[in-house]
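name: query_chain
kind: protein
chains: 1
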Amino acid sequence: MKLNQFKPFLAATLLSFVVSSCNIEPYDGDLTESSTNELQASCEDAIIKTSNEALNYANANPEDLNFPELCIAYKNALENQITVCGDVDGSIQTIINALGDCSTDIGQNGDGHAFMTANLKGKQFNDLKPTGYFFNGVAVSLDNFFVENEKINYLKVQGGTNIFLIDNLTEINLYIPENNWEVGTYDLNIDPRAYDSDSKEIPTPFISLVLTEGQLNYNALEGGKITITEFNLVERVIKGTFEFPFEEVSGNSSGTEIFQCKNGTFDYSLDDEYFD
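structure:
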C-alpha cells in the first residue's frame, strides 16, 4: 500500500471498528426514543473509555511495574463495551481472549519478545513493536508470495509506533525470504509488489517504510543492508541489524534530500505457528 493511501486506510479501519461495535443488542426492553438515545450515549462513552485504555496500554512497556494493571483496565473496558454495545462479529472478544490473564509473559511460548530500534532523521526509536503485539502478543508473521508460480515464504518482522498516532506514525516492515533464514548479510531492497506484482526476480529481503510527519510522507529506497546475527529454531529467536536510505515524497514527486536509517536492530521471537 502506498504511503499516501495508508493514513486514510488506517483511519477507516479504526472507524469501522468503532461503528461495528456500537450496537444495542444486549438491551431486552422496549426501546423508546429516549431509551435509544441513552443507550447510544452509553455505548459511545464505553467506546471512548476503551480507546483511552487501549492507548494507555499500547504506550506501556511490558517491563513496567504497572503493565498488568494497564492490561486489566483495558480488558475491563473491552468487557464493559460488550455489555453496553454488544459484539456482533466477536472481534472484541477475540482481543479479550488474546490478552489472557494480563501477565507480563507475552507470546505463544510464554517468553515472547519483540522490539526494534531505528534512528530516522535524527530521532531515535528504541522500542518499536508490531501493530498487533499489545493485542495478541505475536511477534512475527509469515507471508508468502509467488515468483514464477513458486510460493516463497517470507518472514515479516514489523516494528512501529502505536496505531493511534495517525499523523505521526512510524512503521518499518522487514520481509525475509526463506532462503535467507540464516546468519549472513544481505541486500535490502524495496517492496517489489509496489511496482511489479509479477516480479520474477530471485527473492531477496525487502523493506517497506511508513513514516509520516504531519503532511509529510517518506519512502524507503534501494541500497539497504540487513544482517541476521542469529536465527535459532531451538530458542525460537531471530536477531539482527539493518540500515537503508529513504526520501520525502510529496504528492507524485520525490524530494532530492536522501536520509539514512541508522542503528536499526531487531530481536524477535519466532512465535508464528509455522515454526511449531
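note: The longest helix spans residues 33-58.
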